[in-house]
Amino acid sequence: MIDQIPSVIYIISDGTGETAATIIRAALVQYQKPDIQIVRCKNVRSDTQIESLIDECFERRGMVIYTVASPQMRTKIKESATQKGLLSFDLLGPLLETLDQYFGVTSGARVNVLRNTDEMYFKRIEAIEYTVKHDDGKCLVDLDKADIILVGISRTSKTPLSIFLSHKGWKVANVPLVPGNPVPEELFKVDQKRVVGLIIDMDSLQRIRKNRLEKFGQDTGGEYASLSQISKEIEFAEQLYKQNRRWPVFNVTERALEETASEIVRVIAARLGLPDSVLF
Description:
The structure is a single chain. It contains nine helices and eight strands. It has helices at about 20-30, 45-60, 70-85, 95-105, 115-135, 160-165, 200-215, 225-245, 255-270, and strands spanning about 10-15, 35-40, 65, 90, 150, 170-175, 195-200, 250.
């Protein structure tokens, strides 16, 4: 009768529990039980949460594996599981205790470090996914969810800047400006404090465009890299920026990517009233 009950493992974590889940799945490869269910319980930070989860695990005849930094919480989980007659395993505690001995310090003072690290990691992943999806005006859906929106003509570092900023946790969309093509209406419906214009020197832009054409074996004498076409595009962008004076404009000519990105973040953070901790 007991064998007919699906096996279930509860992961109790003060973070995301993703690392614990990965370790458990690796260990479960050694067992021929395809019906094992893993229940990941994230952001557990109170005795009430622990008691509720232990009761739930007891009802399902499961076992508990926990990864929390707080010694008090580890003790609570262990005692609650024991009272219910549940098997439990502390995945993090023994490691922390051994490291405490080695370094001669107490790790308990840094309880939130793992959780903060997990949150930062997943924030970056979410930002990168958003940024890739909203590159070069490919997707204007959820434009209002962008932290930063970069606007500029072709080859003004929109994509490199977007990707760089996304790795810092910023959701970035970039919208290309093309003379003769209407600027997307969605751009004017979002918080204008998040929109940033990019501009570049004519000669530098011509050199960049010619280098790009040469790289792909294309003719460098066409309109794309001509000074007359570049002049039209720059004028088009400058006119748009004059009409939208709330957009800060950054000149990317001969500037390091990191330098421009840092200045953009500084300005956006100030405009949105964000703390200095968001700067890099």
